[in-house]
Amino acid sequence: MHLAAGLAPRGASFAAKCPQLAILILDGVTGVSGEWFEEISALLNPDRLLHDPRATGEGVSICVIDSGIERSLLEEKFQSRGQHIYPIEGVIFANDQPQPLPYEGRQSTPHGTTVADIILTLAPRVRLFSADVFGPQGSCEVETVIKALHWAIDVWKCKVVNLSLGVPEQRLQATHRRQQFLRVIEDAYYKDVLIFAAAHNDHPLTRSYPAAFAPPLISVDKGLFDDPLQFVYQLRDQVEFQAHSRGYLGPFAQEPATSWAAPHLAGIAARILSLKSDLKPFEIKTILYWMFRSSKRGMMKDEG
What is the pTM of this model? Predict the structure, then answer.
């Protein structure tokens, strides 16, 4: 590839302006100098990107497909910290209703509020949308999740979707159900929507979807980290990332779970997107991968 030689003299200025593009060009290029590689790695250092004062989630819209969000609880929590959050909008999806029901700021269960709180803790300036797929019936079918995904993509035009839920593999034995689910995940990908999906808590013993649809989305397993902004890339049975798996609000928040890991990585992505909002899903995944490679954990793994 001839591009490397042409870019080398202007490497510093190009990389500083467009680190995510620089690393994509670097990937697969042979003959790249160690100095260039070290410079790119330094630019994609997690501390540099995630602690940028502009990395607040501003300008990023996130849909939480879950069990609803207790809006007033989050408003009070962040107001007590001197932080203003944007009003949370939403709807409620019912299995037997073709159109969603109005959202009045209430949760069906605390699960969705814990998820939303994690995202806001990491990226307090995001705009949250609540798609309650459990509602008064207290249960959810895959068709309801599909409807919620279409709503998040086409009506709310969200950039990020968090799915801290999954459908066990045995409930998707029917080929047409699995194909419908995969089709909407692919639709999101081609419309530049990032989906973060929690793996099953017993992964890899139990597979669940959509996390097992790994390539078009970002699948997340649970891990425990000293810093909630830490994560690792660790491919294991179609699930690629691990993120911090304890929450901060709610009755089960301190119990490690993949449900809390997915919104941690979604919040990290929101911080990155507030620096450059038009990144595509594959670019975000690449940046997250190289951020891990540039971290102490990633370098230790390379040395090992």
Answer: 0.84
